[in-house]
Amino acid sequence: MAPTSPLSSSSPHGLYDLTIIGGGASGMVAAISAARRGRRTLICEKSPSLGRKLLASGGQRCNLSNTLSTDEFMERVGRDGRFMGPALEQLGGPKLREFFHGIGVKTVVHDGFRVWPETRKSSTVLEGLEQELKRLEVEVAFGCAVSTTDFQENEFRISHAGGVIRSRELLIATGGLALPKSGAAGGGYGFAESFGHRSTPRFPAGVPLLSAEQWPARCTAHTIGKAHLQVALKKYSRVARTGDLIFTKNGLRGPVVLDISREISTILEKLDEVPLWMNLCRGKNQEDWQLIFKAWRKEGDAPLCAKLMEHLPLELAEVLCELVEIEPSSRVHALKGEARDELIRVLVKTPLTITGTTGFDGAFVTRGGLRLKEVSPDTMESKLQPGLYLCGEVLDLDGPCGGFNLQWAFASGYLAGCGLGTGSAASRVGSEGSPVESWGRAR
Ligand SMILES: Cc1cc2nc3c(=O)[nH]c(=O)nc-3n(C[C@H](O)[C@H](O)[C@H](O)COP(=O)(O)OP(=O)(O)OC[C@H]3O[C@@H](n4cnc5c(N)ncnc54)[C@H](O)[C@@H]3O)c2cc1C
Fold this sequence. Notes:
The chain is α+β, with helices and mostly antiparallel strands. Helix content is 33%, strand content 21%. The protein folds into 2 domains: 15-203 and 366-442, FAD/NAD(P)-binding domain (3-Layer(bba) Sandwich), CATH 3.50.50; 208-358, no CATH class. The chain has helices spanning 25-36, 52-60, 70-77, 85-91, 93-102, 122-135, 187-193, 255-270, 286-299, 304-308, 314-323, 337-348, 404-419, 439-442, and strands spanning 15-21, 41-45, 65-66, 107-109, 114-117, 139-142, 146-152, 155-160, 163-172, 203-205, 209-211, 223-231, 240-248, 251-253, 274-279, 350-357, 365-367, 388-390. Strand 8 and strand 9 form a beta hairpin. Helix 1 (25-36) packs parallel to helix 6, helix 1 packs parallel to helix 13 (404-419) and helix 2 packs antiparallel against helix 6. Mean pLDDT is 90; it is low at 1-12 and 423-443. The structure holds flavin-adenine dinucleotide. Flavin-adenine dinucleotide (FAD) is lined by residues 21-27, 44-47, 52-54, 56-58, 62-63, 144-146, 173-175, 178-179, 182-185, 187-188, 364-365, 392-394, 403-406, 409.
């Protein structure tokens, strides 16, 4: 899609029913929801195109939701998941799929859980949203980086390099800090803070982890299925996840790592290091291994590494032997007593020390953000500033991998759009001249 021109300082100013800062997943759906209710809507997007993060999502395939019930969904989100209730009631999984079907984007579920566009292309989702925005004549100011926001004389004043936009209502949909090249810069926190909102500290979540140990670099060739990761600290021992894991040259990545990193990131703010226990052999416990070793001894005297390879990749088997100072080429019959018990201990709980994350550059989502207590979950309206709305990742709410974050962005945007423009100010003067070209006029 060819972007329209950015706003210029000479553009005439009009009064919008609402202005949305941020043309990402939540901002676009909010605009559709509001424009369908007849509101004159403007999206200010600092990038030259909409939905950059949406395009990158799910490896450019866009895992846009999942099939969990609302209750299961909120439970999986964990902390504060129930805040999502009213938004999911409006546009939870099944309704979101209907919404997309309604704008020509068919969706599919192949694994019983993840919802994808039928084309398996995020561009299909973006094109569907863009076409609907165009149909509804939502105005979009591309390359419009909002610098400050204010409320004066019953109007919001939204400043950018080209001038000031006036709006009866304002929606902050600026997302979080993950993937800065998509436009994420965190400006939205400051806009909300200027109206008295407060935010919690922000951490990268859904992010690869870095380890103190060097040995992961030797094991990068394999995906370890159903790896179980647990924080090896009494206080945080409930922090545990199971899923596929991939070693990197300096740590860990893969779905299970992205999930557990939501918790580890916050622990890392308090502690320099987070010790982990990993079970890399599909949950086999001490008793399982004792039986396996017994069976091996009966089968004959093979090299230990050859037998371990029945359960683990060679490189990992070698590393685990070395961790307990056992020669990987030693024979099964030679391995007795304490040495065997030591090896079983690291097989069941392989230790690794996490020292950091790859930061927001490598993160999928932001943990932390604008405090939920200051926002109504029923409307997404600010409790501090009437007419101000907030939605999507800018709020202190994030989910694990598996369509949780986009589902939240879409649903919260939709809910915000339902109420936007309906405030008392909405009944005032009609629209004036537009400072930007509308979708209809732009093409
Ligand atoms: C690589 C990657 C893959 C992902 N894959 C998935 C996935 O498959 N499934 C899933 O559920 N989630 C996924 N996520 C997470 C999901 O994409 C985000 O949670 C979601 O896009 C958040 O939507 P949002 O509208 O709140 O913010 P964003 O989509 O980030 O949109 C915010 C917009 O605001 C604009 N903006 C910011 N500041 C200003 C300003 N001052 N003025 C004007 N505009 C501004 C930005 O340019 C941006 O376009 C992924 C994230 C990443 C980084």
